[in-house]
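FAQ

Q: What does a record look like?
A: Structure on top, sequence underneath. For example:
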């Protein structure tokens, strides 16, 4: 799917045909749609296909007066009625007369521009448009990082009440999301640093200042991601140790109970033999044997208690 937009009088409007100073927004386009856009704009087909590969790395490429800016953006998806955060490539193709964005999903970063939520946005100011996209992308990472932090705190509180596999799996998913975030943010940082040296950015001081703000926001996201990742990793290790310790306590108690119950079993087995035994002819023999079993069990429990075995 692809749609064409153009801003006039500070209003974004969807148009039917490609025009100069327009924005072509492509979401999971088909091969036919890619070919159609290439015919209309003269865009490099490889530039349009690159963001459709989920494993594509962040980078900048320039060819035939066209520039591909490929960065990772964050996307929330639902898995088993639970929100999971992943990163996917987002491509911006800068051309002489238009801008093309390509992504596998309808990501919130670009959706804000489509719905007119971004102030001072114009498809005619292409370099400014690119920087606004990158800025909101960095802010979006910060937004999801805060959500991950709140969610991890909630799960940790639930684990204090009762340890369940569901909460542990949720913690693991959050840790995996932070790994994706860390890798993507570092790749985006390299793209932003290179973008700062490109001529079309240095033409306008305001654009340079905005790009520096984007770099600052991205660095903040990297630092927050590192902190949350370390905290979550430490929490997971502590939970693993706690689970192992609880298991050891349970096994210890079961072992002590087994030892204590073994003594009456041995005594009862001896008196159960088909031979002459003490108190065999005594009317109270049964209770005497029970008393002996109880006495030995109490003595064994006292000894283990003094040895601090429980």
């Amino acid at each position: 799917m692809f749609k064409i937009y153009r801003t006039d009088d500070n209003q974004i409007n969807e148009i039917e045909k490609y025009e100069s100073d327009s924005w072509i927004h492509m979401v999971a386009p088909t091969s036919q749609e890619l070919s159609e856009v290439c015919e209309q704009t003269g865009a490099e087909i490889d530039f349009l296909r690159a963001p459709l590969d989920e494993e594509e790395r962040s980078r900048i490429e320039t060819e035939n007066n066209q520039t591909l800016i490929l960065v990772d953006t964050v996307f929330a998806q639902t898995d088993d009625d639970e929100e999971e955060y992943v990163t996917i490539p987002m491509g911006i193709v800068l051309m002489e007369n238009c801008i093309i964005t390509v992504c596998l999903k309808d990501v919130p970063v670009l959706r804000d521009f489509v719905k007119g939520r971004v102030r001072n946005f114009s498809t005619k100011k292409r370099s400014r448009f690119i920087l606004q996209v990158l800025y909101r992308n960095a802010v979006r990472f910060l937004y999801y990082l805060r959500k991950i932090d709140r969610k991890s705190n909630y799960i940790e509180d639930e684990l204090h009440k009762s340890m369940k596999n569901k909460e542990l799996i949720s913690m693991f998913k959050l840790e995996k999301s932070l790994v994706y975030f860390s890798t993507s943010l570092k790749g985006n940082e390299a793209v932003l640093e290179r973008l700062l040296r490109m001529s079309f950015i240095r033409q306008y001081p305001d654009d340079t200042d905005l790009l520096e703000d984007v770099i600052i926001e991205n660095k903040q996201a990297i630092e927050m991601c590192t902190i949350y990742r370390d905290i979550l990793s430490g929490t997971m290790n502590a939970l693993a140790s706690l689970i192992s310790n609880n298991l050891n306590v349970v096994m210890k108690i079961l072992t002590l109970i087994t030892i204590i119950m073994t003594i009456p079993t041995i005594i009862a087995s001896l008196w159960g033999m088909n031979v002459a035994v003490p108190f065999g002819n005594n009317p109270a023999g049964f209770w005497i044997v029970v008393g002996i079993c109880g006495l030995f069990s109490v003595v064994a429990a006292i000894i283990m208690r003094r040895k601090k075995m429980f």
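Q: Is there anything notable about this one?
A: The longest strand covers residues 66-79.
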